[in-house]
Fold this sequence. Notes:
Blueprint: H1 6-22, H2 26-41, H3 47-68, H4 73-107, H5 125-140, H6 150-158, H7 171-180, H8 185-218, H9 220-223, H10 225-256, H11 274-280, H12 283-294, H13 304-322, H14 326-351, H15 355-374, H16 378-387, H17 399-407, H18 409-418, H19 422-430, H20 436-458
Amino acid sequence: MVFSSPLFIFLYLAITLALYYLAPNRVYRNVVLCLLSLIFYGWGEPVFVLLMIFSILMNYTAGMLVGKWHDDKKKSRTVLIVAVSINLLLLAIFKYTGLFVDTLKNIFPFLRSFDTPVIPLPIGISFYTFQAMSYVIDVYRRETAVQRNPVYFGTYVSLFPQLIAGPIVRYKDVADQINGRHESVSQFASGVKLFSVGLAKKVLIANQLAALWEVLKAGYATNGVLASWVGIIAFSFQIYFDFSGYSEMAIGLGRMFGFEFLKNFDYPYISLSISEFWRRWHISLSTWFKQYVYFPLGGSRKGIWRTLLNTFIVWGLTGLWHGASWNFALWGLYFGILITIEKLFLGKFIEKLPKVVANLYMFVLVVLGWALFDFTDMKQLGPFLASLFNGGSAGLITHDAWVYILAYLPILIAAFIGSGPLLKKLHDKYFKQPWGEWADIALVLASLVLCTASLVSSGYNPFIYFRF
């Protein structure tokens, strides 16, 4: 069951909202959210609910012990190390065992006769593991109070709006809301509007671009240079609308239940540098790595060479966080190198460029990065990158590829416009009129109707970040 399914929208969400608002007080409402979030998570793979419950109980207990032994640094540090180690071990077992074994088999030929274990990946394990782990770390740092109610802590970890694909919510950012939030009609209404915007991004734009990329990706060797560029640009917009759409749906759902989650995307494709792009893209993940990896390693406080080393470590881990394949590590290091170059000397030069040129510089390099991200088969990655610059016998573009691209041109134009702030600025300017509220209601209803029709006709299409 996923956000972008009629079953979720018209059955699960409706029942959850009804039970939540029928609950008489905050305690019962958190119980409702915790139980129904676990049901939501276990809908497809019930056995993995046990893993989540273990994660909840283990990190809850660790937080209690760290809080109890605050004045005993040795004990509290020991608990922290054990808790972080267990979290990372579970993540490594379920997510990276196959990669580790395959890598060993490539290094040591005598191991190639052994089968690589196939371990199903619990959906969203990277997200909820990072959330739970950050709680224990923040308690140790005395940056947040201990949550003594296990149901409240379970609500934080399992909260279904952002459970399986973020944004990554740190406990200290929602502690007051877990303990005592106040729902309102205006907040609920804004949540419905934001949810419908995110749903439209996913269903009406991202899913259509996915179909275009699938065809152009399959024929990149014979379609021509232009077709390869259009294909990878389509994927670049697809992953943005897919993931930012999910994030907006999650934030909108949170508002329906009285929560305010931090923004996860801030129009990254209008950036004028790679560094700025990553301040605007997946903000919660970048913040997490900065707070819990980069700063503890010393950040930029220990000289230029240590700063560069810390940057490479963070970006290598960021890449591997996204998937158990070496192309993700390569993708992370690619951006680590670009950011390092900007820090050393290129950044000052970029600042002097016309904005259009700086934006084009950013966009081309980010698009090339998405090629590294999508091609998990390294044997295909090289030929595809070559197709971006050498069309071979196909030349610029074939007739069939051109006809296919023209069919999707309206979606590409909509994606280009929708990836920037223009539509929001126009909405904020003109929808302040007395008729604006009714227009918003009409747009929400139209979005739900169009998205439902599209979902019923096209079937299941999961969010890209569900795999992480």
